[in-house]
Design goal:
The complex is a heterodimer of chains A (about 170) and B (about 450). Chain A is mostly helical and about 170 residues long. Chain A contains seven helices and no strands. Chain B is α+β, with helices and mostly antiparallel strands and about 450 residues long. In chain B, about 30% of the residues lie in helices and about 35% in strands. The radius of gyration of chain B is 34 Å and the shape is elongated. The interface between A and B is large, with 49 and 44 residues.
């Protein structure tokens, strides 16, 4: 399969993943099916529209709505800590990346191996980071102003890092 | 940021233009919203979702590097004939690794790629080089600048796109394929230098002209003994010397009649190239006047160097729109030597050209006009009024030709697709048969 065909094959590849991500929170929850299902359906419809039209502006909204749907399902059923969150986060990232790859393919862009490898690596790293965050959540730490202050400092440092990377 | 300048080698360079993908802002926004949601909901899941997206943004920012490339462009030759192929070679050397690089060569008009070769875009490791070869067909004569290379690179995650136009412009001169012409127009007058044209004057030469009675001072070897014996007194042969002539090609560049297959200017240049070659081979002095929006001229001269100067001048011929009135007075005097043969190639459409040609004839120049018939480039309309207008216009043109003929100027029509030689032969016949009218 040459590069152009591969690129065109990528266009719809994210759609099944988006559908799976939309279905996953709703499965086995008849109580929350209405709200969660509606959010998921809108998200998948937006995702499909973004790829089909193509409409790049809709893709972040679709990804955001998938995340909102997932969080809504957790809140509605007052679920305890979800151990599947890192996998869902990696899936969400993969879904977003496939969506953008599809949009680029629609505009004549070509996929290249290095980028596929980078996306795969990034998804694995997202799982690892999510697991690390889950682990950090489970560590019992006494709250207080010191911890809150550290959190604020960490947030500022993260924003500064991103700003520095962006300006470099 | 767009910008650019000139590097140490004098080449035009441009800076990379960086475009940021919408993904970056989307990931940062969604990541920020996720962190906020984590705080509000006091749950780790929104933070985990946000972390994945922020990780992608951070990795993309960390891995993004502006490409550092060295581009060299080479043409296998800088001169070619119309219809020939030239090979363009673009070599890209990466000083730092590039995740994805696409190279596109923008070709000037008149050059087309023989086979559409689409080398796959891809990664380039630091220190490695990639060479793109394009076989180009020179479709149309003219001076071209080749080497406008468009580079497009991306970072490993595709968050940034870098674009740059490298302009390593190499000159390529495409010479016109001349029309096939064996017999040229013979000038009415010759010049003082030796050449291949038999002069109408008498003098030292090998072509017999006449017999006259001997006068003291005549050389003995000129005595025609047979005629002397028959007439009872000495007679000598008179000869015609072989001289060269001055030929000026007058190209009307006020108007170009376009057509999908060719234009009147293309026909003019091909014909002029043929005549230049033919007359210079006969040791004639050939000059050129490009009479149009911009006036171009070359004084008559002979030899190989003049051939290249004339052809180089020809391939730069183009139509420049101008409304300024121009007459013969703008042409330097030495460009039009006395007794020169002026061969004009014109569609006879612009009043300035008509005025100049009539003026030339009025000054006694030996003028011949090759009319590049505009009728071949124009279709009469479908309506009655349009057809009538076309007929009127055709009659006006006929009257104009008659005006030139009355002045003793042959006007021969050269239509697209016809060979030039019969056209020149027709002009030659007119010049031979017609009585020269001095105005």
């Amino acid at each position: 399969m040459n590069g152009a065909r591969l690129s065109l094959a990528i266009v719809p590849a994210g759609l099944p993943l988006a559908a799976a991500l939309a279905l996953a929170p709703a499965v086995g929850q008849p109580a929350a099916l209405g709200l969660v299902g509606a959010l998921g359906a809108i998200a998948v419809a937006l995702y499909a529209a973004a790829l089909a039209m193509p409409w790049p502006g809709a893709l972040p909204w679709a990804v955001g709505l998938l995340g909102v749907e997932y969080l809504a399902s957790l809140e509605v059923r007052a679920a305890p800590l979800d151990l599947g969150a890192p996998a869902y986060a990696a899936g969400l990232l993969l879904c977003a990346e496939l969506g953008w790859l599809g949009l680029e393919a629609r505009r004549g862009g070509r996929a290249w191996l290095g980028r596929a490898v980078a996306i795969g690596t990034l998804s694995l790293a997202a799982v690892a980071l999510g697991a690390l965050l889950l682990l950090a959540w489970t560590i019992p730490l006494p709250g207080g102003p010191t911890l809150t202050g550290l959190g604020v400092l960490a947030a500022i440092a993260a924003a500064a890092c991103l700003a520095w990377l962006g300006r470099r | 940021m767009p910008g650019g300048g000139v590097d140490a080698a004098g080449r035009l360079t441009a800076d990379w233009i960086t475009t940021v993908s919408g993904r970056l802002s989307a990931y940062l926004s969604l990541g920020g919203a996720g962190l906020l949601a984590g705080l509000l909901l006091a749950r780790p899941e929104p933070v985990i979702l946000a972390a994945a997206l922020l990780l992608a943004a951070a990795a993309g920012l960390a891995l993004a590097r502006e490409p550092d490339l060295d581009v060299t462009v080479r043409l296998d030759r800088d001169r070619a004939l119309e219809g020939e192929d030239v090979e363009l070679e673009v070599t890209i050397t990466a000083r730092s690794p590039v995740a994805w690089l696409d190279v596109e060569v923008s070709l000037p008009a008149g050059l087309v790629e023989r086979r559409s070769s689409t080398e796959p875009a891809g990664a380039l490791a630091a220190g490695s080089a990639r060479t793109y070869r394009r076989r180009l067909e020179c479709r149309r004569w003219g001076g071209r600048l080749v080497g406008d290379v468009r580079l497009r690179a991306r970072d490993p995650l595709g968050l940034f796109t870098y674009r740059e136009d490298e302009r390593h412009l190499l000159p390529l001169r495409v010479y016109p394929r001349p029309e096939s012409v064996r017999r040229l127009l013979r000038p009415a007058e010759t010049q003082a230098f030796a050449g291949n044209e038999v002069s109408r004057l008498k003098g030292d030469g090998i072509e017999f002209a006449d017999i006259r009675p001997f006068v003291p001072g005549d050389r003995v070897h000129r005595v025609n003994w047979r005629a002397s014996a028959r007439r009872g007194e000495l007679h000598v042969n008179e000869m015609r010397p072989e001289r060269n002539s001055d030929v000026v090609l007058f190209l009307d560049t006020f108007t170009d009649l376009p057509d999908p297959s060719s234009t009147s200017l293309e026909m003019t240049v091909r014909a002029a190239a043929a005549l230049i070659d033919g007359y210079l081979r006969r040791r004639d002095r050939v000059g050129l006047v490009g009479f149009g929006g911009t006036l171009r001229w070359l004084r008559p001269a002979m030899g190989e160097r003049q051939l290249y100067r004339l052809v180089d001048a020809l391939i730069d011929t183009q139509v420049v729109l101008s409304y300024a009135w121009k007459g013969l007075d703008v042409i330097p005097r030495r460009t039009l030597p006395p007794k020169s043969l002026v061969v004009a190639f014109t569609p006879l459409l612009d009043d300035r050209t008509l005025g100049a040609l009539i003026d030339l004839r009025g000054r006694g120049y030996d003028l011949s006009v090759v009319e590049l018939s505009p009728l071949a480039f124009v279709r009469p309309g479908g309506r009655e009024a349009e057809r009538l207008a076309f007929r009127l216009w055709s009659m006006e043109r006929e009257a104009l030709r008659g005006r030139f003929l009355a002045m003793g100027v042959p006007v021969v029509t050269w239509r697209r697709g016809e060979p030039l030689e019969p056209v020149l032969a027709a002009a030659g016949r007119f010049r031979r048969d017609a009585r020269l009218v001095r105005t």
